[in-house]
Records
---
Amino acid sequence: MSSSPLANERTPLGTAPHALAKLGVVVVAAGRGERLGAGVPKAFVRLHGRALLEFAIATATSLPHAGHLVVVVPEDRAAEALELVERVLPANSPWEATVTPGGRERHESVRFGIAALPDSVDTVLVHDAARPFASAELFERVLAEVRRTGDAVVPALAVSDTLKRVDADGVVHETVDRAPLVAVQTPQGFPREALASAHETVQLQEGGEHGAPTDDAEVVQRAGGTVRTVPGERRAHKLTTADDLTVLESILAANAAEALEGP
Ligand SMILES: Nc1ccn([C@@H]2O[C@H](COP(=O)(O)OP(=O)(O)OP(=O)(O)O)[C@@H](O)[C@H]2O)c(=O)n1
Ligand SMILES: C[C@](O)(CO)[C@H](O)COP(=O)(O)O
């Protein structure tokens, strides 16, 4: 960080001055976490004394690139998020950071995040704060594939359970072939222009036959773009319900030295 993110009021919530950033990372942390029901947004849930958002910021800004990080948070959490950014980013970091308010739906928060990136950013990784232990290697794998292909890229894991189609009463109608199915994670990577214009297109279509898109790959696909996959990883597990806390605790224990390393 070239100076404190509070030093320059470029957005309503504060920003650092920016140089020639080419990589942008948007960490979305503005969800309400209703399925978890912790009483605080998931990004601010603490594991071993640290907010989930802190882990995501630390990993994103550990990438060996000069980049610009945008953290998208609920408006009333902006000051807390700025404090986290200041704590995590070392004074000599090549990363600059902006905190900006989110929207009602995830795709709106991403759109606001993209808008807060400096013009010099040409490639964007969008990451859920709710996946705090996605590794730097995963970020690099996605980024390399975006730059190699010029397409959108998402991390994907094979589905390991047998899948059934059921009706509203829970009665099974058929077994679904799982061979062509994958579960996708974040970070998801995109050429900036493709992502920004896809979000504009989807915003105009809102209220149409499709519901709200749940990830950015879907946004790009709806706009006619190609989305590729790279191998995902178990440690990029998402906090969705209370059961996931146990999974995240075990991932943290398995990667404790690295994940709990102080700034
Ligand atoms: N309006 C929203 C909704 C979601 N997110 C972020 O998108 C990620 C994944 O979303 P999800 O798991 O659906 O989070 P929540 O919306 O918080 O969860 P819930 O649906 O249970 O309320 C999270 O890091 C969340 O903070 C966001 O920035 N803005
Ligand atoms: C973006 C995401 O993490 C990809 O799996 C996911 O779509 C988040 O939203 P969800 O509604 O919990 O699937």
Note: The helical segments are 52-60, 78-88, 106-115, 136-149, 192-205, 216-222, 243-254, 256-259.
---
Amino acid sequence: MTKPVRIGTRRSLLATTQAGHVAEMVRERLGREAVLVEVTTEGDLSQASGVPLAGSSNTGVFVGALRDALLRGDVDVAVHSLKDLPTYPHDGIALAAVPLREDPRDVVVARDGLTLGELPVGSRVGTGSPRRVAQLHALGLGLEIDGIRGNVDTRIGKVRSGEYDAVVLARAGLARIGRLDEATEVLDPLQMLPAPGQGALGIECRADDADLLGQLALLDDGPTHAAVTAERAVLATLEGGCSAPIGALAEVVEGEDGDEIWVRAIALSLDGGLAVRMSASGGPTDAVGVGTRLASEMLADGAARLADRLEDRLEDTDKRQNA
Ligand SMILES: NCc1[nH]cc(CCC(=O)O)c1CC(=O)O
């Protein structure tokens, strides 16, 4: 008998559900037993204490403790929401598989079944994500956007209690915990491009665990892996040249001469007043190249100056207000 695969996960309902899904795939496709091992992360502790966590989606606060457990040998596999994984590689750790992803779009959960467009001017919308804040402002609906903390359940509860008129969440998160019926609108990517990797899982193992690496490859979905690779290449390149909020979405589609990868991306000022939006396509085997070229073009076309230009605008506003 081989030993069960120990799958490391954060403790939240969403995380354990996602890890449970991976355990199921390990049993079915690898024919091996799997057990979940809960690991407390810095991000969870901070969330519980209510201390604000700046830039939590990109700095990997939810990721570190899981990777430490992996490197210590406490677990064999770590399951992450791919959008929470930093773009740079981690020594000794390999991204072994990216399974078929859920619908990557964002959803609105609003009071009284409302859509964003139906919310009255001045409605209070909760989101802590700069990407969502900026794109919500860019819609020009006069919504008041306020930071919000806590897990998916807590956020929905704040709409129920009337503290917020609406919140914006990843559709995938709601779907995974069986709460999709709470969504009152699915946002079109034309209005709200998701975070790079949104809706996908990243399955990591130790880079020197060759047997497991080979087995986990059975859980990989090629088109999803190519799409998130392109999205993360966009993010990695834009991060190098600007600190603006970023959205990106890629898809592998059947073209006339075989598969093609399509990528669209946006970088915007936090106030949503300025945006650089572009798309690119190419071969799915060149996902990194397509994403990198797209982001370089965006930087050359003004994404690199978004932060400066935002400061100029704020200065102009001050002058107007003082006049
Ligand atoms: N930011 C936290 C986070 N990380 C992954 C998900 C949901 C699942 C996913 O996007 O893959 C969420 C919640 C949300 O953004 O609503």
Note: Confidence is low (pLDDT under 50) at residues 50-59, 319-323.
